[in-house]
Specification:
Elements: E1 7-10, H1 12-20, E2 22-25, E3 28-31, H2 46-50, E4 55-57, H3 65-71, H4 79-91, E5 96-100, E6 108-111, H5 113-118
Parallel strand pairs: 1-5
Antiparallel strand pairs: 2-3, 4-6, 5-6
Length: 133
């Protein structure tokens, strides 16, 4: 993957806080505003977020890695190669990779830059962490 592309790394606590800080209304994700009350059906979990992601690799949510790779007209020998090709495809198109640290299995999400910006991921400079070589 190209190290100059945007990669955000979150701790597991920050990931949970991020999800808890979102709501979905009329198929649109938005950050919650302090002091506002939101109905329980607007709460966002990883499964709900998956409907807004371009691609994902998660232990809790099936991201259909092989189906995504097929949609890109690519093939791979294993899951790691498949995920690398998926990441390359989307990151070259301006998307953002969000990784969650501290888990036994990979938790990585690819979001459009516009969605990541709207949800506050790109504005919090503490979250920006470009990948190493």
């Amino acid at each position: 993957m190209n190290a100059s592309k945007t990669h955000i790394t979150l701790s597991t606590d920050r990931w949970e806080t991020f999800l808890a800080g979102l709501y979905e209304r009329d198929d649109r994700l938005e950050p919650r505003e302090a002091g506002q009350t939101y109905p329980p059906h607007e709460a966002v979990d990883a499964y709900m977020l998956s409907g807004h992601a371009e691609a994902l690799r998660s232990a809790d949510v099936d991201g259909d890695l092989w189906g995504t790779l097929e949609d890109l007209d690519e093939t791979a020998a294993d899951e790691e190669e498949a995920w690398d090709k998926i990441c390359s495809f989307y990151l070259e198109r301006g998307c953002v990779l969000v990784s969650v640290e501290g888990l036994e299995e990979p938790e990585e999400w690819i979001l459009t830059a516009e969605l990541a910006r709207r949800l506050g991921l790109l504005e919090d400079q503490r979250l920006r962490n470009p990948p190493g070589p």
